[in-house]
Design brief:
This protein has one domain (44-224): Uracil-DNA glycosylase-like domain (Uracil-DNA Glycosylase, subunit E, 3-Layer(aba) Sandwich). Strands 1-5-2-6-8-7 form a 6-stranded mixed sheet, sandwiched between helices. The chain has 7 helices and 8 strands, in the order H-E-E-H-H-E-E-E-H-E-H-E-E-H-H. Helix content is 33%, strand content 13%. With 231 residues, the protein is of the alpha/beta class. Helix 3 (80-91) packs across helix 7 (208-224) and helix 4 crosses helix 5 (157-166). The radius of gyration is 18 Å and the shape is globular.
Length: 231
């Protein structure tokens, strides 16, 4: 009688979302605890991705904002940047409903998902390089889990750098610039945009027209690849 060796257990997939009390970045964990004391009714935890699990468009942001996602628990919800982002997504058919700056406003994303490069609130909105690197262990599998992914929009240079690395690209060959396009080894196209922060909007570094051009280009690439866009 021949006994077969038991099959080796398959490796567990990398987690897409960090745990509620993620300890990997001590500085961010300490700052999180300070916010929990100061604002016990806020989210004050790593902010999960938001959107369509069948998305062909992924939007990579920087990190939660103090008054935005760190308070509400949904990316770009409750702060100034979210107004332009969600209004633009609605205009281009990537979201439906009404954005009312709260996570229970009923807004639904279609064909799109938003994922921050860093999931926890950083002091002064400035994550350290080591924190960006550490949190990429969640960004990479989150992008890999999207079977229809064709286009990624990076909001700002940090999001651009982290997205390039998460998607297997090389930074020297993919320089950041508004509306710059980079075809990565997988065939996914990365489009850069200046971040839709209050500062960039107030100083006219980024206008609504400039931001809309990014989403218009993303839609055009998606449609050329055979992806439909909800309208």
């Amino acid at each position: 009688m021949i006994l077969e060796s038991p099959a080796a257990p398959s490796a567990s997939p990398a987690p897409i979302e960090p745990p509620h009390d993620c300890p990997l970045c001590p500085r961010l964990a300490e700052f999180r605890e300070e916010q929990r004391v100061a604002h016990p009714d806020w989210w004050n935890a790593p902010v999960p991705a938001f959107g369509d699990p069948d998305a062909w468009l992924a939007i990579v942001g920087l990190a939660p904002g103090m008054q935005g996602a760190n308070r509400t628990g949904r990316p770009f919800t409750g702060d100034f940047a979210g107004i332009l982002l969600y209004e633009t997504m609605i205009r281009f058919g990537f979201a439906e409903g009404s954005y009312e700056a709260r996570p229970d406003d009923g807004l639904i994303l279609r064909d799109a998902i938003i994922i921050n490069a860093v999931r926890c609130l950083p002091p002064q909105n400035k994550p350290l390089p080591a924190e960006i690197h550490t949190c990429r262990r969640f960004l990479t599998p989150a992008l890999e889990a999207l079977p229809k992914l064709r286009v990624v929009i990076a909001l700002g240079q940090i999001a651009h750098q982290s997205a390039v690395k998460a998607l297997g690209g090389k930074l020297p060959k993919a320089r950041f610039g508004h509306l710059a396009e980079h075809r990565l080894p997988s065939g996914i196209v990365l489009i850069d945009s200046y971040h839709c922060s209050r500062y960039n909007q107030n100083t006219r570094v980024l206008t609504a027209e400039m931001f809309e051009a990014v989403f218009a280009r993303a839609r055009a690439i998606g449609e050329a690849a055979g992806q439909t866009v909800s309208r």
